[in-house]
Amino acid sequence: MEFATSAKARRESVIIGVDVGATTLSGGLVQPDGRVLTSVERPTHQRGRGTGVEQLLDVVRHLQGEARRRKARIRGVGVGLPGIVDVDSGMMTGEGGNLVPEFAKVPIAERITEATGLRAFVDNDVNALALAEHRYGAGVGVRSLVVLALGTGPGGAIILNGELVRGRSGYGGELGHIPITLDGTPCICGGRGCLSTYVSGEYIAREARAQAREHPESRLAALAAGDPAAVTTRAVFEAARDGDAIARALVQRACEGLGAGLATVLNALNPDLVVITGGMTASLVPLEAEIMKQAAKYVFPRVLADTAIRFTTSSKRDTVRGGAALFLYEVERRRRRGQVTTGR
């Protein structure tokens, strides 16, 4: 996918921003003001399971070549990874649940630098997304921002007074693992009853497939052409809109869980803005009133009234801005700390 740009823009500096997902890996050339000049999407495991690191390096090299063709100066690379990240060592730890295990304990930033000669930073993908919202999007000018990203698995990120909250060990903002029920469904993180077990696409689809097997007469089974294994999260929401009782129960459970999780975030942080985004958002937008009704059961009324809550959809082309925002944030943060930086 190519986007026209002027001769002047082509001479400007760019950042290679990359978003690594469990299924799709996207990258782009992003200008410091957030404009995406060009972007590319590829299956994360196009070459087979366990090949995501090689795919990432291929995408970065491809974009490096594209920048040279455009005569653009590359400042560096920023990458969002779907897991807990040790930012200073430039790698994903592999703790807390991991949808791309081949990235665990691999020095990704170092590997990118070795392959391209470019300075690179990596962080959790939702942290990168929050930095993009704060620099370029809905969070411009706000003091405190929370992002909830709902997709294959839910993630979260927190910015307070312009600073990304990473926590002591990189677990700051892991809002997908807020416990909603004390003895609930086991979660991939090792806990039970996490928000993830209510609103992750993976959990909803898995539960729906089990129900479709038990009820082959259901609308859910019909949408999958009688093959329960083909049931998707999107099909669950579609079947719920069509009145299917099984799907409606799953969707209602998701609304209740998200409402309770949102209330916990609001009561704990009292932020200026909460952005709810990710692959499931388009299905949730028609249910916003129900979600807020559920949240109101648990949150302080004043806090709910004072907080702006926005449901936003985004494309993979948009998420590459997260990598760019991450790179700029890290350069600025390390400069403030007095660390050596090339500046580029």
Strand order of the largest sheet: 3-2-1-4-7
How are helices and strands ordered from N to C?
HEEEHEEEHEHEEEHHHHHEHHHEH
Shape: globular
CATH class of the largest domain: Alpha Beta
Distance between the termini: 27 Å
Summarize model confidence as the mean pLDDT. 91
Instruction: Using the 3D structure, state the CATH architecture of the largest domain.
Output: 2-Layer Sandwich
| Number of structural units classed as domains | 2
Radius of gyration: 20 Å
Count of helical stretches? 13
Any low-confidence stretches, pLDDT <50, length ≥5? Answer: 1-7
Q: How many strands in all?
A: 12
Helix share bin:
40-55%
Profile the largest sheet. 5 strands, mixed
Strand content: 15-25%
Structural class label = alpha/beta
Name of the CATH superfamily of the largest domain? ATPase, nucleotide binding domain
Examine the coordinates and then state which fold CATH places here, giving the name of the CATH topology of the largest domain. Nucleotidyltransferase, domain 5
What does the model show?
This protein is 41% helix and 19% strand. With 344 residues, the protein is of the alpha/beta class. It has a five-stranded mixed β-sheet with strand order 3-2-1-4-7. Strand 9 (155-160) and strand 10 form a beta hairpin. The longest helix is centred in the last third of the chain and has 25 residues, at 245-269. The two termini are 27 Å apart.
Topology (SSEs and partners):
Elements: H1 7-11, E1 13-20, E2 24-30, E3 36-43, H2 52-69, E4 73-81, E5 85-86, E6 91-92, H3 108-116, E7 120-124, H4 125-136, E8 144-149, E9 155-160, E10 163-164, H5 196-199, H6 201-214, H7 219-223, H8 233-241, H9 245-269, E11 273-277, H10 281-284, H11 288-296, H12 301-306, E12 308-311, H13 316-336
Parallel strand pairs: 1-4, 4-7, 8-11, 11-12
Antiparallel strand pairs: 1-2, 2-3, 5-6, 8-9, 9-10
